[in-house]
Design goal:
This protein has about 140 residues and is α+β, with helices and mostly antiparallel strands. About 45% of the residues lie in helices and about 25% in strands. It has one domain: Dynein light chain 2a, cytoplasmic (Beta-Lactamase).
């Protein structure tokens, strides 16, 4: 009698792994659509880096902590001056830009770019990536 094949069992990937994998894809795509982007990271509001695609010399934990602090200071600033909801924190220096924005209620998107970056494109691509990240976390919470 021929041996019967075992039914294939589909291994389910835990939600956290799916979100992390999705974040990695969003960050890779963001870096690929704008060549002036030199690094990207998703950080939680406590400053912990969740996913990143950063230059080797970047100190990930410091970047995460600074991004969380800058976003918090930006939120306090707009609240103090009654300017509504914070959209972005933009830091411009002679060597480039740092753009920080909320991606979901508990996550922050950090984008590093060269000084020749076109700000309109940088904001557009960052906003699109933040929406994708928000969607990943919304899907993860609904399962």
């Amino acid at each position: 009698m021929p041996k019967q094949a075992k039914p294939s069992v589909k291994k389910s990937v835990p939600r956290k792994d799916k979100v992390t994998s999705g974040l990695t894809q969003v960050l890779k795509r963001l870096r690929s659509v704008d060549t002036t982007i030199t690094g990207v990271a998703v950080v939680n509001t406590d400053g912990q880096v969740i996913a990143e695609h950063l230059p080797r010399q970047a100190q990930k934990s410091r970047l995460g902590n600074i991004a969380a602090m800058m976003l918090s200071i930006g939120q306090q600033t707009v609240a103090e001056f009654e300017h509504g909801e914070l959209e972005h924190v933009l830091i411009e220096s002679e060597n480039g830009f740092t753009l920080i924005t909320t991606a979901s209620p508990n996550t922050i998107l950090v984008v590093l770019a060269r000084p020749d970056a076109k700000l309109g494109s940088l904001f557009l691509q960052t906003n699109r990536a933040a929406e994708e990240i928000r969607g990943l976390f919304d899907q993860g919470n609904n399962r």
